[in-house]
From TrEMBL, chain A:
Segments forming domain Na+/H+ antiporter MnhB subunit-related protein: 5-61, 103-171
Keyword annotations from UniProtKB, A to Z: Cell membrane, Membrane, Transmembrane, Transmembrane helix
GO terms for cellular component: plasma membrane
Localization, UniProt: Cell membrane
One Pfam family in the UniProt entry: MnhB
Protein name per UniProt: Cation:proton antiporter
Keyword Transmembrane part of the UniProt annotation: yes
Organism: Pontibacter mangrovi
Length: 180, 796
């Protein structure tokens, strides 16, 4: 499966898929779509990526944030040092493993945690109603609307929870199965 | 359904104000329970932060609670009752209703005071244990549950706490989890008391149906209605089953001696002073409602009496200090149940005084046994000699407690025993049983104090370490309390017990006159006789043990052996059943599910035999569009192809094709959301299969050709039945306003135009929440299965 064309295409398509999945999530309240469908689309994006590049690469690219840092060198001014840091963390990212003065901090997102977060978000979105003395899961909407996204409210939060849960579940499944 | 933001914030503010007022009103009995729960939850964390000093905050909780309940003493002594209510599930009558009267207060003080001492004691007893935090978690949880149990007025609330005590008891018995003995004992205790708990729940529900009331205070008022109700006997039997298992009555007594596998402070607290008395407590609480019938009297006196005799007999045959104490506890619990069965005014008094005296002296003796075990490393009676020298404080405590246990004036045990004799004077059989227990108690008291500490022997038992202060102080306090309360019996304990006695309702309003000295009555003579006989029994104890070895074969058929045999049988049965049912082939699961469903459907069709009228619907065939036909034929062709193919990839793709065709149908019939989901799921399934394809074994027809046709036949049957049912459903469409309601109110109430989504996340959001929770749990299960590697020898 790891043909060059497929791999390259997927590299560019995955972010598109993801944006589309979020879009589907938001439009779900008024048009076909929603958290479940959005989560499935998002996970399909990652499944393709895993197929093309392997699970380690996918985890490294999308579920891991690395910050590079080093203390200011003596002959560097502060703005220059900042510039260097910015450079290292954005377009001129330092490769790992090579001996360098850079220290790095990693932030990893595990699919299982994503599932848990989704469940938590979905379950807590209903507390807004409870706080107001109304039944659990009574919906509240903000009085304004955003372009593209539409109205914001607790049902949307609930749907986001569903999205995260579905995404996390399929990712975890795919990662576990392909690592075997 | 959705107020706008401004209204929302206002509502929130109002609600918070309202709640705050309500919380102050319901004040603190709920807070007492919550404090316990919070301490329990914090204990492991505190242990991590504070190390051995964790005992300070943990011990502070029972101390605070004890003082808090002490503050209730003046009003309760005047006969007032404190009540609090917090609605929980009002529709089902399940509310957090608390009620503090004399009986509850007696137990609450006992629980908190004992809890404090036991927590202090365990800080020394388990000083080097790395799991001390967890131990305090369980212990505090238990204390809280026990408090809730005695404070509950609502029967379901009581049941809830009842079960928590069973579970925390299980956790505490199995605390030394590395030892098989402890694990087995914990299981046993949980199964026996849990089974009793189930019976109790059924009994309480039946009782509430019969009485139409869910609170103890309400039940008292409808006594006649309950007694004459046809449900009286079943409710009584079930409740008694629950109480008997909890309070270790024959034939369920066997779990209690086995529970001695728990650390000694636990044995002292749960298995002698408090938890095992929960059954007695509930019986006492319900006696104004249920007592007074022949059934109540007979069952309680017979079961209680048998338990007394068995406990006393078995206690004398053992040589392990804790086992001896456990069996005498069983005997004592039997006495309490007997007293409840008698139900006279004397019996009520005897029950309460004996209960208090027993808690104090038995708790002391257990704690002393723990100290001895901790200091010398053994609990065997014959290895322990002359410990009085090095363990003076423990020896003193044990002696004081033993004197109380033997019923020597002026200890509280004396008062308890006098009253016990007094209560059973009229029934010669019960008096004999009572005397027997008394004699056995005297002998055991001599064993626990004189034999271990003071008797002159050839050599001293060496100590492994000097006894720590906290191992000796708590038992000494308890023992001294037994002496003090005995000496001041008319002044200090009597008023509280009087109030507790009012709850029993044996003869309401009766003034309780209790003094230490009654003059030379018949009962005093019996007391002296008991002491004398006890002394004789102690001297002849070795001979009793020799004789009792004859009884050994009988134990093979005792309840304990029976329990183990049943347990084994159950495990074997379950294993055989599972092996038959769960053979590991997905196809057979699917087939069984389908066949079962088909069977149910066929049964219903055969029973109701609904006619299906196709003639009126032929026109629908004419309305069929060309593209619908094309999709249908595509599916059929794909299926035929699927049956013949021998490649896994092909079959997956063909299955995907069938799925896509289904999605196409959804689109054609105007369900874009469902179609999208279907499409995506099909895609994902194919993708995941592809991902795994090269790891799967070669795709061969393992099953016989015959089996293949069998599967095809089952599939066709299933499909045919589904089609038939669908046609039926269409024919008898139920008129429903639901569709219109959702259609009309989707935008108005829920701000959404996509009805499917609005239903999912708003109208039926709770269902979705349940579904995603199930999804998450199922996923976790799948992952643990995926992690499993049978080739490495992992076991499922």
């Amino acid at each position: 499966m790891r043909t060059l064309i497929f791999a390259t295409t997927i590299r560019y398509l995955t972010p598109l898929f993801l944006i589309f999945s979020v879009y589907i999530l938001f439009r779900g309240h008024n048009h076909p779509g929603g958290g479940f469908i959005g989560g499935l689309i998002g996970s399909i994006a990652f499944v393709f990526h895993v197929l093309a590049h392997g699970p380690e690469r996918t985890a490294g690219t999308y579920f891991q944030l690395t910050f590079y840092h080093q203390s200011r060198q003596e002959h560097y001014s502060l703005p220059r040092h900042m510039w260097q840091l910015l450079q290292a963390n954005t377009w001129n990212r330092v490769k790992q493993g090579s001996p360098s003065p850079w220290r790095y901090y990693m932030l990893r997102v595990r699919p299982a945690y994503m599932m848990a977060t989704g469940l938590l978000v979905a379950a807590t979105s209903g507390f807004a109603g409870l706080l107001a003395g109304l039944p659990y899961m009574t919906g509240f909407w903000l009085p304004f609307k955003l372009p593209l996204v539409g109205g914001l409210g607790t049902p949307l939060l609930f749907d986001t929870g569903v999205y995260l849960l579905v995404l996390g579940m399929i990712l975890k499944m795919v990662f576990t199965m392909s690592k075997e | 359904m959705q107020p706008y933001a401004e209204e929302g914030t206002q509502a929130i503010l109002l609600y918070i104000r309202y709640q705050a007022k309500k919380y102050i009103e319901i004040t603190v009995m709920l807070a007492a329970i919550l404090l316990g729960l919070v301490t329990a939850a914090a204990a492991p964390l505190l242990y991590r932060w504070l190390g051995k000093w964790v005992v300070v905050p943990v011990a502070l909780t029972p101390l605070l609670l004890f003082l808090y309940f002490c503050a209730f003493l003046p009003p309760v002594l005047q006969g007032q009752v404190a009540t609090q209510q917090y609605d929980w599930v009002p529709a089902l009558g399940i509310n957090l209703q608390f009620r503090l009267d004399g009986l509850s207060l007696l137990f609450a003080l006992l629980i908190t005071f004992f809890g404090l001492l036991v927590i202090l004691y365990s800080s020394s007893y388990l000083a080097d244990d790395p799991l001390l935090g967890r131990f305090y978690l369980y212990l505090t949880l238990f204390m809280t549950a026990m408090l809730g149990l005695v404070l509950s007025d609502n029967i379901f609330c009581l049941f809830l706490f009842w079960e928590i005590t069973s579970i925390s008891s299980y956790l505490l018995i199995g605390y030394k989890q590395a030892e098989k003995e402890a694990r087995v004992a914990a299981w046993q205790a949980l199964l026996v008391t849990g089974l009793g708990g189930l019976a109790l729940m059924a009994g309480l529900i039946i009782l509430s149906i019969a009485a139409g009331s869910y609170t103890f205070s309400g039940l008292v008022g409808v006594r006649d209605q309950v007694l004459n109700h046809v449900f009286y006997l079943p409710a009584l039997l079930l409740i008694l089953l629950g109480c008997f298992t909890k309070s270790a009555q024959f034939p369920f007594h066997f779990w209690l001696p086995n529970a001695m596998a728990a650390p000694t402070p636990v044995s002292a607290y749960l298995h002698s002073a408090t938890m095992v008395k929960a059954g007695v407590y509930l019986l006492a609480r319900l006696s104004p409602v249920l007592a007074g019938t022949q059934a109540w009297h007979d069952i309680l006196t017979i079961v209680g009496g048998t338990t007394v005799v068995i406990g006393a007999l078995l206690a004398l045959q053992h040589t392990d200090l804790k086992a001896i104490l456990a069996y005498t506890t069983i005997s004592a619990l039997g006495l309490m149940v007997t007293m409840l069965g008698i139900g006279s005014a004397y019996a009520g008094k005897a029950l309460l005084f004996f209960l208090l005296a027993h808690a104090l002296y038995k708790g002391t003796l257990f704690l002393v046994a723990g100290s001895v075990d901790h200091s010398t490393g053994t609990r065997e009676l014959f290895k322990l000699q002359r410990l009085g020298g090095p363990m003076k404080l423990a020896g003193l405590a044990a002696t004081l407690a033993a004197l109380s246990m033997a019923g020597v004036i002026p200890f509280l045990g004396f008062v308890g025993k006098e009253l016990l004799y007094e209560a059973s004077l009229e029934n010669i059989g019960l008096l004999l049983v009572n005397m027997m227990a008394g004699v056995a108690f005297v002998a055991v008291a001599l064993l626990m104090s004189y034999h271990v500490f003071w008797r002159r022997g050839p050599d001293k038992t060496p100590l492994q370490h000097a006894p720590a202060l906290f191992l000796n102080l708590p038992p000494l306090i308890l023992a001294l309390l037994g002496l003090a309360l005995g000496a001041t019996v008319g002044i200090v304990p009597a008023p509280l017990l009087q109030q507790a006695y009012q709850v029993l309702g044996n003869s309401p309003g009766a003034e309780m006159k209790v003094g230490l000295w009654h003059g030379f009555t018949r009962v005093f003579g019996l007391s002296l006789l008991t002491l004398l006989l006890g002394l004789l029994l102690y001297n002849g104890l070795n001979r009793v043990r020799e004789i009792s070895t004859v009884l050994a074969p009988v134990y093979k058929y005792g309840p304990n052996a029976l329990y183990h045999r049943l347990f084994e049988l159950f495990l074997h049965g379950a294993k055989a059943f599972i092996l038959k049912l769960q053979n590991g082939y997905l196809r057979s699961y699917v087939m069984v599910t389908m066949l079962f469903f088909c069977g149910l459907m066929l049964f219903m069709l055969w029973r109701d035999s609904p006619g299906i009228d196709l003639s009126k619907r032929v026109y629908q065939l004419q309305e069929m569009r060309m593209y619908e036909l094309v999709v249908m034929f595509l599916v059929i062709a794909a299926l035929v192809f699927l049956l013949g193919t021998r490649s896994r990839l092909t079959s997956i793709v063909v299955m995907g094709l069938v799925g896509y065709a289904g999605a196409l149908f959804y689109i054609l019939f105007g369900a874009p959301d469902v179609a999208a989901t279907q499409l995506l799921i099909e895609t994902l399934t194919v993708l995941i299969f592809v991902l795994l394809l090269h790891k799967l074994p070669a795709f061969t027809y393992v099953s016989h050709q015959f089996k293949k046709y069998k599967f095809i036949a089952v599939s066709i049957l299933f499909g045919a039945i589904m089609t038939y049912v669908m046609l039926l459903v269409q024919q008898q469409a139920q008129p429903s306003t639901l569709k219109e309601y959702y259609g009309d109110s989707s935008y108005v109430l829920a701000h959404g135009r996509n009805i499917v989504n609005v239903i999912l996340v708003d109208f039926r959001g709770l269902d979705t929440l349940g579904e995603i929770t199930v999804l998450a749990v199922a996923a976790l299960g799948i992952f643990s299965l995926l992690r499993l590697n049978p080739e490495k020898g992992d076991k499922p």
